[in-house]
Amino acid sequence: MDPRGPASHPSGLEATGRWTRRRKRWVVLAGTLGGVALLSVLLGFGLSRDPTLIRSPLLGRPAPDFSLRALDGTDSIRLSDLRGQVVVINFWASWCAECRVEHPVLAATWDRYREQGVVVLGIAFQDRPSASRAYLSELGGGWPQLSDPGERTALAYGVYGVPETFVVAPDGRVMFKQVGAVNYGALTDEIERLVATT
Amino acid sequence: MSARHGMRWPTAALAGAVIVAGAALAVVAARGEPSPRTLEGRVHAVASTLRCPVCQNLSVADSPSLLAQQMRSTIAKELQAGRSPDEIRGEFVAGYGEWILLAPPKRGIDLVAWLIPILLMAGGAAWAGLAVVRWTRGSVPAPIASNAATGPGLPPGDRVLLERAIRSVSDEEPE
Lengths: 198, 175
What we know:
The structure holds two protein chains of two kinds.
Chain A: H1 11-47, E1 67-69, E2 76-78, E3 87-92, H2 97-113, E4 119-124, H3 129-139, E5 145-147, H4 152-156, E6 164-168, E7 174-179, H5 184-197
Parallel strand pairs in A: 3-4, 4-5
Antiparallel strand pairs in A: 1-2, 3-6, 6-7
Helix pairs in contact in A: 2-5
Chain B: H1 2-31, H2 39-47, H3 66-80, H4 85-96, H5 111-136, H6 141-147, H7 156-172
């Protein structure tokens, strides 16, 4: 018979062995549950946020400066030259359906606020200049229209697609951004607010 | 004893090989790709860390979209102008936010995404190491031989069954 047989085991040792085994099981269980709980919290946090809704980091920050040539090739406009005025920057394209939808809103805004020193700037995005010009002669729009070679300005403004509209305060900070067709009420509210502070 | 040694050495060698291979893999992964020499390669290196804004889950390097093409040409111009990859990424972050980065920044809540895999890997390696040590110690036969009937290794129900079986065998033996 084995000398380390059952008789040589003090009963206390057996109990201790069973106890540590049970404790170990609890530790493993608690660890697993803790890990699952942590991952669930993180997953819940991630799922509760809309990944398509990204707040522009530009809001409240100085608007990236640009100097762009007009679509008709006449002259160029530098944003920093417009300091002291409210500037609406609208990225658009002739191939963009929603741009047609919002075009009357921009026209109405331009007509209503140009006397108060508000500037509306259109910037063509991924568009052939000839197509852009044809679009403008079809829909009208007397505010300055600029071309953006290589989309350098659009990339600086973090444009995902057109239309996107920004409002720059007289101090040069971006105060408003709308992705998609701009809303007349929201746009004019922001302009009124900024005009009142100047 | 010799049989156990015969089992031990290949196991140890295998464990050693796995550890060496894992370490080599970790070193290669940590070093990353060699820094590219050509402009095209440098553009690709930056573009592959940026998310294409108009497509879901494609890098700027992989996306065929017009915007990604323009981002690549912007990156090329900036690199030629002497900007560093981090400066260029910073410019895109300024316009698009940290969303534009394919890998989360290593700070704040985003650090969790970096730490969890490392912790899991370390925990797994520690567990595997302990398991290998336990197996190669050759302690497996001992508890079976010595503690079969009442050893701590059996749940009470099984122990009762085992004791009953042993008793029935020893009862049969005299006949």
